[in-house]
């Protein structure tokens, strides 16, 4: 086996790792769509469902006759954004006090918006989102320099040991979740200042580079994540330093060493897609070098929107049923459907009879 094939296997295995739920989770049969206002906004596993059944005034748990699939729906009697948020918050705080889920021990008092078709339906404590399989959005900044002797070099951060998630792991230079009240570019600028003290005269050079998406599962829950990616070329003499206590170190690595760091267990798994995407876009991982290049690229852009389509699927089934009903109504009854009985019968040569 060539060295290229070895690298390929490692890249593909890593891509499969941060998409472990996308590739295998749906086949286990222990998940239900989570609906708000008739729209699917999440997925709920059986261990969470066992706790939600204790709150029948908040969650309607039933089977859908049309789709033949079990579902969990936030009580449709809740009138608006605020009431839905308040009722859900009460349940989450109860679950947190019972210490049933590791995810809730990382409670932050930071809220993510739960949306459908760009409409905000409620807000949810960030730590709780993995329990409901709610889609999450964040921003990541690839800080890099073009070194005269080492070529393309990438800044990485080491997360603080006190972080609620992935403590002490290596990560992208800057990253953060899209919280309620903040836009995408606004979040990128805010996180750049807080995590790496990047001044405004440099951060103005941020270049939008699209997004990556993946579907990861850990003991914390489900992570259907979309990360908006920015590239930022930095001067050789710039050294980032942390301002919010969430980063313990920064390190500048040549591209090849950065790849090796991503493969280690010391790197945050859900940040690997951003680094791989950056290296592909900058020509350090190419189709000539990697046989399964297209598979890897596809696993950097998982179509999450096509996985949250309960309402669309239900509407399609209802439409099909309506069409079938209309077709049946148009069909004549048995007597008028066949005129054979009114025709005289003549014998056939082979002994059968035929209509005249």
Automatic annotation (TrEMBL):
InterPro entries reported for this sequence: DUF4743 (IPR031804), NUDIX_hydrolase-like_dom_sf (IPR015797), NUDIX_hydrolase_dom (IPR000086)
Gene3D superfamilies, per database record: Nucleoside Triphosphate Pyrophosphohydrolase
Protein name, per record: Uncharacterized protein YJR142W isoform X1
GO MF annotation: an example: 8-oxo-dGDP phosphatase activity
Source organism superkingdom: Eukaryota
Species assigned in the record: Drosophila pseudoobscura pseudoobscura (Fruit fly)
Residues covered by the Nudix hydrolase domain: 136-277
Region Disordered, residue ranges: 321-356
């Amino acid at each position: 086996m060539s060295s290229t094939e070895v690298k390929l296997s490692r890249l593909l295995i890593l891509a499969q790792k941060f998409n472990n739920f996308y590739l295998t989770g749906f086949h286990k049969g222990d998940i239900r769509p989570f609906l708000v206002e008739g729209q699917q906004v999440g997925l709920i596993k059986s261990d969470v469902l066992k706790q939600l059944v204790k709150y029948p005034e908040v969650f309607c748990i039933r089977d859908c006759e049309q789709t033949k699939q079990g579902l969990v729906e936030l009580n449709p009697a809740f009138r608006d954004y605020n009431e839905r948020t308040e009722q859900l918050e009460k349940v989450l705080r109860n679950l947190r006090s019972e210490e049933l889920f590791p995810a809730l021990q990382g409670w932050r008092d930071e809220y993510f918006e739960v949306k459908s078709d760009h409409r905000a339906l409620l807000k949810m404590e960030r730590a709780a989102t993995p329990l409901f399989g709610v889609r999450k959005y964040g921003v990541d900044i690839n800080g890099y320099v073009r070194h005269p002797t080492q070529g393309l070099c990438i800044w990485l951060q080491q997360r603080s040991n006190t972080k609620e998630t992935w403590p002490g792991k290596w990560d992208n230079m800057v990253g953060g979740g899209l919280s309620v009240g903040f836009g995408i570019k606004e979040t990128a600028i805010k996180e750049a200042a807080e995590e790496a003290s990047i001044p405004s005269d440099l951060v103005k050079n941020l270049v939008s580079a699209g997004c990556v998406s993946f579907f990861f599962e850990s003991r914390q829950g489900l992570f259907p994540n979309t990360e908006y990616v920015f590239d930022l070329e930095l001067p050789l003499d710039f050294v980032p330093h942390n301002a919010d206590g969430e980063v313990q170190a920064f390190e500048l690595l040549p591209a090849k060493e950065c790849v090796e760091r991503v493969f280690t267990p010391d790197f945050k798994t859900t940040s690997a897609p951003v680094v791989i995407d950056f290296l592909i876009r900058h020509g350090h991982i190419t189709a000539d070098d990697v046989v399964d290049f297209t598979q890897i690229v596809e696993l950097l852009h998982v179509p999450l929107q096509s996985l949250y389509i309960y309402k669309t699927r239900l509407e399609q089934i209802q439409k099909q049923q309506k069409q079938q009903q209309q077709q049946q109504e148009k069909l004549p009854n048995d007597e008028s459907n066949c005129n054979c009985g009114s025709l005289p019968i003549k014998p056939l040569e082979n002994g059968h009879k035929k209509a005249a």
